[in-house]
Amino acid sequence: MERLTERIRTTALDAGADLVGVAPISRFENAPPEFHPRAVFPPTRTVVAIALRMARGTLKAVEEGTYWQAYNCDSYWHMNEVEAPQILRRICVALEQDGYTGLPVHNPFQPHLGRRIREDNPLGPDGICSLRVIGVAAGLGEFGMSRFLLTPEYGPRQRIFAVFTDAELVPSPLFKGSVCDECLACARECQAGAIGDERTEVVTIDGRDYRHAPLDTTACARIQTGHDPRFSPFRTGEEEEGRQPAYNRFIQEKFHHSGIICAGRGCIRACMDHLEKTGRIAGRFHTPLIEGERWKLDQPPGGGEDR
Ligand code: SF4
Ligand code: SF4
């Protein structure tokens, strides 16, 4: 078990993962049935989580208000659609060498569009899981107030992916430290007002309670994808009804997603900046993420929110 665990860890790191953690299936016993790893892959005994960092410059350029494409390509499309699948595949192949089976679990999901097949599954295929919970269960970090996984290496600046396997591997210890100091920069700087300010949501893993604030995902989605001309430089407020701005259409055509415009103004960028400046995470950089006043748009022609 130790030898295989080490080989899987080395395979993942050599393939380009920044962090690797291992969660035994017992750590998901409190998961809602529709989010349980076995609803996706019934033979699962272990979940291997990997974290890939987003290149810091892709966030810095959005923070400067000068360049969104690197985030949309590199930190979203390429990580999700190219880099992670390659690393997960390498892990699966390494498991097969010892006679085990691995299932790569990518992001994003399109869950439960199919009809239910199995009695023991609460919903139809495809199943879904929470990659941020998997990250915590695999010992990579904790939840910030924002609900994001925060790691001591990168704060909120990573994406998580997973392999579900029938192999039993040596579990990684749960993260016992604290990265989030409840500064509330995430909630203050979120233009959707989507992040709560009290840790009322609880996820229990191995008897330990991890808490975060509630997140209004509907409010977030509108700002995140640039539906509100007050906060998206790519939407003038004069688009024809139901018509996406030219930039979102370009991103859709080229990278097959609807376009990320907010890029975590509160939940990633303000949080990262706070954690970097207070030395609560590992990285030290020559250029601060946030320098001076943050950009703000003039009211667009047509004004107000485009509903
Ligand atoms: S911004 Fe502050 S309160 Fe919010 S998750 Fe980061 S450290 Fe925690
Ligand atoms: S992505 Fe933007 S809108 Fe959504 S929670 Fe984060 S800061 Fe708020």
Keywords for this structure?
binds iron/sulfur cluster, alpha+beta, four-stranded antiparallel sheet, two-stranded antiparallel ribbon, 32% helix, 307 residues
Summarize the structure.
The chain is an alpha+beta fold and 307 residues long. It has one domain.
Structural account:
The chain is α+β, with helices and mostly antiparallel strands and 307 residues long. The chain has one domain. The chain is built from nine helices and eight strands. The strands form three sheets. A four-stranded antiparallel sheet has the order 1-2-6-3, with helices on both faces. Strands 4-5 form a two-stranded antiparallel sheet. It has a two-stranded antiparallel sheet with strand order 7-8. A hairpin with a 5-residue loop joins strand 4 (142-143) and strand 5. Helix 3 packs antiparallel against helix 4 (69-96). Bound molecules: iron/sulfur cluster (SF4) (2 copies). One iron/sulfur cluster binds at residues 144-146, 180-186, 270-271, 274-275.
